[in-house]
Fold each of these.
Amino acid sequence: MIDAHAMLGDETYLRLDADELLRRMDAAGVDLAVARPMGAGMVVDHRAGNDLVLKAGPRIRGLATVNPWWGPKALDELARCRDLGAVGLFLDPARQGFFPTEPVATPVLARAAEYGWPVMMKTGAYVYADILALAEVARDFPGTTFVAGFGGFADQWFELPMAMRNAPNLMLDASMMWGAGIQQIVDRHGAGRVLFGSAEPRNRYAVVLKAIERRGLDESSRRAVLHDNAARVFKLEGGRP
Amino acid sequence: MRIIDFHAHLDERWLHKPIPDASHMVAAMDRLGVAQTCVYTMMGFYAETPRNNDLLLERSQRHPDRLIPFVTVDPKEGPAAVDELERCLERPEFRGIKFHPWLQAFAPSMLEETMVAILKVAARTDTPVLFHDGTPPYSTTFQIADLARWVPEAKVFLGHAGLADYVDPAARLLRDVPNLYGCYCGSRPGDLVHLIETAGADKITFGSDFDPGSWELLAERLDNTIEAGLSPEDLEAVLWRNAERTLRPSSR
């Protein structure tokens, strides 16, 4: 299994380091995790945050983050992260303070597209993290995969099905989504649009995996959600379910 | 361990979507070991509130030992809303009050006079008042916590204890406002640990938000609670003891 969304670092009341994430992965039978920084490492201290996820070892692969307001320095940091093996870009418009559609974000998104990276953005808080704003930029970069981090949790969940209909390159990170919401996306858009994620340390592997198992997906859909989609989107090897 | 679900919905439909009857809710509770569930309307948040209060009472009384109805009123009606609350609370079966300001289209501060009157009735009758929280523009966690300060004698619940983006403010407000309580309903195990570490286990009550058509949601919300790794004492407080202590005393 591949976890498409774990978090490393220290943010307000959440903290997780690589050793503890690996312990939780082993306990849950998860082979690989894609992690992104949280807290100061995500909002302002990108070099430290990116190093944390990019140097966590072979079973943890990193999403690089930069604050788009850094301008050219943000692009330099993305180049450094590419050299360190980043598998995608993570942005948090609410914490980092920009609309996804705002021109300040465009160079960062264009650079991710140039690198062939998927782009995950945390969605769900209103204003900056509006899931429909993510769908807008997904339409602007049709060759890039965008992932709705947290799937609009909590009160933008009802926007997700139509947003995904209107942006075929938009996928759901199921890490904070309830089972019926996951099922709705599978039914309407296919299992190929859903990524299993843990949101560790906020959520727990056991919670997400049991929610997925209760849906009774057929084997190919289950495999797509738990492994194949992430392997394709993040260009990962291994992580058999 | 005994479980009381403090936050669920019982109605015949939500918007255009039919909802199965109460027997399905009780079957889900049996399946997952839930002893009692507090039930709220869905359609009564939009229209015909008195009629929906009566319907909720009727539906819940098919399983009187298992389902505990909460009344809602439309505070935009002013004194008529207070009258409707008094009418419903004459029935001992109603053991709580529920508001969903986002769906009911009001900010409490727009209706201060009526909300104060409602909270005073709640305080006089020892009835908890639960508000949806975590959603702008009418149901932010700060809005609900502010309202709790208006009538310190009333027991006011954050219906989702911060939900997605307000968990840390919720934890601090639950700690700082004596008559503010939290229903852990929808947020995640890491959030629950923080809520309890900050505000204390006595301030947090389990809720699922499930309806008779979604037993899986009840299972998921129980997983959310169990996987937080609480001490047995804290888990017991969250799963039932706080709810039992806080509900309007039953005449049964």
Amino acid sequence: MDPRIPIALDERLTADAAAWLADAVARVGEDPAAVRGVFPAVGRRCGRGPLIAGWTVADAARARLLAALPLSGAALAEEIAALHRYGDSAEQRAVLRSLALLEDTDASFADRGLPLVRAALRSNDTDLIESALGPYAARHLDAEGYRQAVLKSVFCGIPLARIAGLTERADRELARMLADFAHERVAAGRDVPADVWPVVRAHPGTLEASGLPAETGSPSPDRREAAVRALAAFSATATAPAPAGAA
Amino acid sequence: MRIFDPHIHMTSRTTDDYEALYAAGVRAVVEPSFWLGQPRTSVDSFTDYFDALLGWEPYRAAQFGIRHHCTIALNPKEANDPRCAGVLDVLPRYLAKDRVVAVGEIGYDSMTPEEDEALARQLALAVEHGLPVLVHTPHRDKAAGTRRTLDVVRESGIPPEHVLVDHLNELTVALVADSGCWMGFSIYPDTKMSEDRMVRILKDHGTARMLVNSAADWGRSDPLKTRKTADAMLAAGFDEDTVDQVMWRNPVAFYGQSGRLDLEDVEADGSALFEGNSVKRGGE
């Protein structure tokens, strides 16, 4: 977790909210089952507004409650999974955003939160998808899962800059998938989201292999124009630094 | 005119109903969890239902400018099915949630020992969570059932001002008035209670602690009965302030005891999505 988040939380909480949260953290530390009653109440006790770095006040307060659980490994994962199962979407996004912190606090938590990430990636809730694609997903999703998650984000309009680990994990196959996606958009006469270009650009040859450049010779003017716009955007894009698998 | 329907099952209603409710002045509703007309066979179908009452339905209501809250409970009818008794064990998770403004509907259907057990446990949960309760009174043997309900409520130690006893009529209203509990009336086409009978009851018993609802659900019912009763009150000589007391201030006072009523102006935001879904259809 971004170390600025707990600091920002402490600055933001009112005295009443801070006292409530401190008491809740203490109760959870003594009795893990107490989290079931306090976790849903965080929004109305601490606030729901935005904090920093895409986190809400409630997200950060909930992360603190989860980190206080005196559990580890499978028992920790079981309690977390139940909070997610019975959580509304605000509770679920906080669970997802807390997964990396849980693993940092308890190494034996390991990849036990991965089923929750996968469930979020199956949903159509962009808020949950984005919340799932933090550092924990970047660490644990396999190459295929990570590529699919990036592609789904593109489809859902989630800016790729918000996905953790893209620079390190974007590989040639992902560049191929994004170039094919770009071709598909151009063939439909549509524009391509600009944030796919750095990944494609980092893997020379993927754009050419997609067939997109040949669209400039299409008999349909809308396809030709879309291709010209896409190629101009591609050329104007700086190369992404140090991609995975690059020579 | 502003109206708060304190008991309506919107999951069974259409978007046309939401539009008509808004046009009639309804700005807030409470949806009690109840029977779905067909028995559920597992705890999981209850939790999916509770999740919908807390997720999809308030989202849907907000599209039409209506604030949606709910009450959560194991209803008396299904309390008799051993396959559903485990619902009582998951209730504490749900009673902690933001939009849950009461425990309900609880009460009696056929007055069995299983119903006794479920009622007593849920009254204790309400006390523990500091929540009001919405108590359903039986359709059959109503007067005896209402007396027994009031006895159990008294024994539970819950303060009477935290209790709303619903589906009352001419023969049960005085019992509840004397108990200090709030009184609820479901105005239905043909059965239970009509607008004109309701107006007579308000004239006879006053408007304090009185709530009027449509209890509209999947059966033959009319979500606009609150507005029709308000109009009947005005026609019978009640002033606008008294109508506002019954149709808005009373339900706000009762459910407001939960501390979870959120009545900031609901902005009908057609662009909002719930879990990526919208009530709009493709192409709109």
